[in-house]
Design goal:
This protein is an alpha/beta fold and 188 residues long. The chain has a single domain, classed as 3-Layer(aba) Sandwich (Trna Endonuclease, Chain: A, domain 1), CATH 3.40.1350. 42% of the residues lie in helices and 13% in strands. Strands 1-2-3-4-5 form a five-stranded mixed sheet, sandwiched between helices. α7 links the parallel β4 and β5. α5 packs parallel to α7. It is globular. The relative contact order is 0.17.
Length: 188
């Protein structure tokens, strides 16, 4: 398999994939995936980058988690959200906390460390903790339309935060492959 997804503009995936082609993301996560069973939704994937809209990224992330059989509790960030944009319960009933960033530059370590704090020691300051879940999130996801600086990647790895960069995001949005499969998350 080579090239770009059926119906996808080549320029989009060239821009989105600075270090790992989308085919590798799919093949690493699901080696026997038949793309005929997963038609590519070019409109949804490309709209995120054309719109440059942080709210749209949060809405699409919420919608895709719902399509992945998660129960979305908080679909977008708001005042008093404590730094957590999207919150859901996985099919295994685990709390998922998500930070979404529609940035023109890679995510830095400081931003990652703030999210780590917000989903650990700062969890009691979140709206969702006050209103719904007193248990901390089991799965923490950082979603961006860009990439992560190496220092941010290392901080996330140490903290157990799953990273969704532009390439993984495009595959998740476009092919509708469940995110836990793309990221290799067990006990979802």
């Amino acid at each position: 398999m080579h090239g770009h997804p059926p119906g996808a503009g080549g320029a989009l995936f060239t821009r989105l994939s600075p270090y790992e082609p989308w085919e590798h993301v799919l093949r690493r996560a699901i080696p026997d995936l038949d793309l005929a069973d997963h038609p590519y939704d070019q409109v949804r994937a490309e709209r995120l980058w054309r719109a440059e809209d942080w709210l749209l990224l949060e809405e699409y992330t919420s919608r895709r988690l719902g399509e992945d059989n998660c129960a979305v509790v908080q679909s977008v960030g708001s005042s008093g959200d404590g730094g957590v944009d999207v919150v859901a319960k996985s099919p295994g009933r685990h709390v998922i906390a998500v930070q979404c960033k529609h940035y023109n530059q890679p995510i830095d370590a400081t931003t990652m460390k703030v999210f780590h704090y917000d989903t650990t020691a700062g969890w009691e300051d979140t709206k969702v903790w006050r209103e719904t879940f007193t248990e901390p999130p089991r799965h923490r996801l950082f979603v961006t339309t860009n990439t992560f600086e190496p220092t941010a990647t290392r901080a996330a790895q140490r903290a157990g935060i799953h990273l969704v960069d532009a390439t993984i995001l495009a595959v998740w949005m476009g092919f509708k492959v469940p995110l836990n499969q793309l990221l290799g998350i067990e006990r979802w």
